[in-house]
Write a structure and sequence with these properties.
By secondary structure, the protein is α+β, with helices and mostly antiparallel strands. Helix content is 17%, strand content 44%. It has 2 helices and 19 strands. Strands 2, 5, 6, 9, 10 and 11 form a 6-stranded mixed β-sheet that branches. The chain has a 4-stranded antiparallel β-sheet with strand order 12-13-17-16, with no helix packed on it. A 4-stranded antiparallel β-sheet has the order 15-14-18-19, with no helix packed on it.
């Protein structure tokens, strides 16, 4: 009986650490930019010694790839692109990643080795999912008949959670989404929407979403009643002007002929 009680006590026993590493669960950025992944120690007023920060991505319990500090075990994809932010702060834990690519879509973990009251602690945060996307590209087809096709696309690392939604006046419009494989496992997600070109002026917004509630980026396009293109309008004016000149020239030529006929002497 005592052994059973002892085992149950071990199962419910949990070590309460005096410190914890805090980091946000999600962060998004566009490729080419610099992302700063925040990381801090709570409570912040604790005095620690020999703080050694580390960043890695993959699984929390299995460091798939080391990112910081740079050493022989670091991922080659991040060498020369990472540094602690701000760089002149000796106690900072936040990580900056420069020149982002769509392939940087990972869950990054902030870890810390430190001494507190002469006790050694190894702390790891719960991870920050970094979602990196390409620029949102919106285009419209040339008007054919009464309809215009609006297209919207973006490059992402994985398409399971990323989606594109068309909205007008705050209301979502139903449209399908296609997926095209790209380089290094990334994909291009695209959605199209057919709208009437005869309707009143209307603004359509393409929104890049992650999951059901995270609004990442958006681009807008405005559709209005079909108008005569400027080039065609100019051409019609030019044709009308040339026609007018031709008619005027013909009338002037007839008038001259009539005058000449009137001045000629009559033959006997």
């Amino acid at each position: 009986m005592e052994k059973v009680v002892y085992l149950l006590a071990l199962m419910h026993y949990r070590v309460v650490l005096p410190l914890e590493v805090v980091q946000p669960d999600f962060l998004s950025a566009q490729e080419g930019d610099t992302a700063v992944l925040p990381c801090s120690v709570s409570p912040g007023n604790m005095t620690t010694e020999c703080m050694i920060p580390q960043w890695f991505f993959g699984l929390r319990t299995n460091r798939t790839a080391n990112v910081y500090p740079e050493n022989t075990l670091s991922s080659h994809d991040y060498k020369g692109r990472v540094f602690l932010h701000p760089p002149d702060n000796n106690v900072t834990l936040s990580l900056a990643i420069q020149r982002l690519t769509v392939g940087d879509h990972h869950t990054f973990y902030c870890a810390l080795s430190c001494l507190l009251n002469h006790n050694y602690y190894r702390l790891t945060g719960n991870g920050t999912l970094l979602f990196v996307h390409g620029p949102l590209q919106v285009s419209r087809s040339s008007c054919s008949g009464e309809n215009v096709t609006l297209s919207c696309q973006a490059e992402v690392a994985r398409s399971s959670e990323a989606r594109l939604v068309w909205k007008t006046a705050g209301t979502a419009r139903s449209s399908g989404q296609s997926v095209t494989m790209k380089r290094r496992g990334t994909v291009v997600i695209q959605t199209q929407l057919r709208v009437s070109s005869l309707q009143d002026r209307e603004t359509y917004t393409c929104v890049l979403m992650y999951g059901t509630h995270r609004h990442i980026a958006q681009e807008t396009v405005t559709i209005g009643p079909v108008k005569l293109p400027m080039l065609l309008y100019t051409a019609s004016l030019l044709i009308s002007f040339v026609t007018l000149l031709s008619v005027t020239a013909v009338l002037q030529l007839r008038k001259r002929r009539c005058r000449v006929c009137c001045l000629l002497p009559e033959r006997s």
